[in-house]
Amino acid sequence: MLRRLPRRQMAGMGLLVLLVAVTFSSAPEPTLGLVERTVSDPAAFALALVGLYLIRPVLAIPTMAAAAVVGYGYGVAVGVPVALLGTTLSSIPPYLAGRYLRCTDGLLGRLCASGEAYFEVTGDVRGVLAARLAPTPSDPISYAAGLSRVRPQPFLVGTVLGELHWTVLAVVAGASVRDLSAGALPSVPMTVIVLTAVAALAVLAGPAYRSALDRRTDGVES
After folding, report:
1. Cα–Cα distance for residue pair 82/74, rounded to 1 Å
2. For residue 114, how many other CB atoms are within 10 A of its CB?
3. 120 pLDDT exceeds 80?
4. What global pTM score does this model have?
5. Domain for residue 67, yes or no?
6. Distance between CA 147 and CA 182 in Å, rounded?
7. Dihedrals phi, psi of 39, to nearest 5 degrees
């Protein structure tokens, strides 16, 4: 398929990946113009998205920004599963990086201890789900899950469930705007942020209560 693409389209695809990575958050206008031109070629756009999601965790590109580009090119019906797949797969490198780090003394050791205590109380799936429901950056959660030795399957399940609503919001925003501009970039209403934060707390309420009850019981017995 690569050989069938004209050189001009290949160059446009590469520029799209580079410009999205560097300027999407701070100066989106030139990037979005290139996105629109690349969308007209389905093969080039698909390859550009692959490149975008490959470099997304390296350059800390927000998952919602990438999902908005997917929605712009594919619409909601196709864009949601594509963006959710891209978000999930691009969360694996930081997760693996966290798993291969050794928990030594100092700050890293404290982070490992805190993460392990958190997931011991919540469980792996519930812990990842609650963290991703909250309005927090995606990649630090992946690193923390890896540091805490969360198993791969629960990590992926929690990631899919926890990122679904953010992905839908971004894809819908991208699909509904044909002239993406700085003022039209996907923004998350404060109501959604509050509701997702409340949902995260609700997911953690049961484990937190049981943990507090266990500590109280241990204190009485001692």
Report:
1. 9
2. 13
3. yes
4. 0.69
5. no
6. 36
7. -60, -30
Residue 39 vs residue 190, higher pLDDT: 39
Q: List alpha helices for 91-151, DSSP H.
A: 92-100, 107-122, 124-133, 138-147
Residue 131: pLDDT band with limits 50, 70, 90: confident
- Of 85, 64, 65, 219, nearest to 156 (Cα)? 85
Instruction: State the CB neighbour count (10 A cutoff) for residue 135.
Output: 14
Full DSSP string of 31-99: HHHHHHHHHTSHHHHHHHHHHHHHHHHHHT--HHHHHHHHHHHHHHHHHHHHHHHHHHHHTHHHHHHHH
Among the listed ranges 148-152, 160-164, 208-212, which one has the minimum average pLDDT value? 208-212
Assess whether pLDDT exceeds 80 at residue 63.
yes
Sorted by sequence, the CB contacts under 8 Å of residue 77 that are 6+ apart come out as none
Which of 35, 61, 87 is the last residue in one of the domains?
A: 61
Q: CA-based Rg of the chain, rounded to a whole angstrom?
A: 20
- 146, part of any domain: yes
> Is residue 69 situated within a structural domain?
no
pLDDT at 92 over 80: yes
User: In whole angstroms, what is the distance from residue 141 CA to residue 169 CA?
Assistant: 20
Provide the pLDDT for residue 93.
95
Are residues 85 and 56 part of one domain?
no
- Which tokens in the block code for residue 149? 């030795």
141 part of a folded domain: yes
Domain that holds residue 55: 1-61
